[in-house]
């Protein structure tokens, strides 16, 4: 304690050596110029560093706000869900045959349970005094294996996700009105398109047409030849009805 300088806080790490004898480190006075008062020097510096990071974080939230999607629709069975980035590796795991379908319990509970259980038990299973990585080969190996698996599964999830479809389905759009008495809509309802694309053309098991910028020729081609999950020959009407339907959907998709 020095008058006018406040209390000095120093570390005291008395430990036992291999022979069981107490080992005392050198007194802090052996390191002149390398100690400082906890208050206000040390604490003020910590506060300043924390304030810089906090302000930087707030600036990022203002400059890049969280993205918003369209209003949730529980009847939209065609929606492709995607969890936050830190759960992508679990999301990808559920896509594999050994962890999905009848084995879903393995991917959803067994594998994550073993992984996180081992992480919680690590301090009790590995009680060795060594801190150097090369002297702890098994714990380091298992940790590297876990990290590699998480990175790989996350990358696979990002690389294989249909981002174009996700952008369309999450897009916030205003309701586009159309005339249900339109001859094209009558054909639309008659051909049971409502079952997949919705009575407001909002999508469901099939795509939503709003904003797709389709031409009548493209609509007619898909109606005859199919597209992805839509089977060829789904349209059963006449050529005249197909023309009305194509013109109606194309006009709506370009509004």
From TrEMBL:
GO terms for molecular function: electron transfer activity; heme binding; metal ion binding; oxidoreductase activity. The chain crosses the membrane at residues 42-63, 103-125, 137-155. SUPFAM superfamilies: a domain/subunit of cytochrome bc1 complex (Ubiquinol-cytochrome c reductase), Cytochrome c. Residues 28-155 form the Cytochrome b/b6 C-terminal region profile domain. It is a multi-pass membrane protein. The keyword tRNA processing does not apply. Coiled coil: none annotated. GO terms for cellular component: membrane. Pfam families: Cytochrom_B_C, Cytochrome_CBB3. Residues 179-253 form the Cytochrome c domain. InterPro entries: Cyt_b/b6_C, Cyt_b/b6_C_sf, Cyt_c-like_dom, Cyt_c-like_dom_sf, Cytb/b6-like_sf, Cytochrome_c550/c551-like. Keywords: Electron transport, Heme, Iron, Membrane, Metal-binding, Transmembrane, Transmembrane helix, Transport. It comes from the Bacteria. It is found in: Membrane. The keyword Transmembrane applies. This is Cytochrome C oxidase Cbb3. The lineage of its organism: Bacteria, Bacillati, Bacillota, Bacilli, Bacillales.
